[in-house]
Amino acid sequence: MTDEDFTDAWNLKLLGYIRTIRAVLPHYQERRQGSIVNIVGGAGRTPSPLFLPGGTTNAALLNFSKGFSKEFAKYGIRINSVSPGLTATERAEVLALQQAEAKGISVEQYKAESTAAIPLGRLVDPQEIADIVLFLASDRAKSITGAEILVDGGQQPGV
Q1: For 120-124, which contacts have Cβ atoms below 8 Å and span 24 or more sequence positions?
Q2: Which fold has domain 3-85+124-151?
Q3: Selection from 36, 24, 50 nearest residue 145 by Cα
Q4: Is the pLDDT score of 47 beyond 80?
């Protein structure tokens, strides 16, 4: 991998999130409230040798989110993270093809192995991610900040 592989991933996701937060922060500080929910990804906790640029980006984003949550809680601003596991999306199809090629197996075999590794035995439905994000953004979660919620069918231990 090249430096560019990593800097591209960091610029797109990590710095993209940081820039977005920087843009809304003055408004939230003025209102003395706000909720930010970052969609991170399980690779931030469990590195994959086939996904190092994305994994390092996710790990940095988790670290940033937790640090940010402590700094800006005094303004009533909450920041949390949702880390989806393998989710039934078009991106999952692209990743399945890439991973299968990298491992030298068929896409069908890769999908079967991936699904078998999920304790609940199925991919995450995108609506499940949306439901968690809506909850975290709502006043029903007004005492939650600095948290990471895993939505991965039980693949990783933790909340």
Answers
A1: 120/153, 120/154, 121/153, 122/153, 123/85, 123/86, 123/87, 123/88, 123/92, 123/153, 124/84, 124/85, 124/86, 124/87, 124/88, 124/151, 124/152, 124/153
A2: Rossmann fold (3.40.50)
A3: 36
A4: no
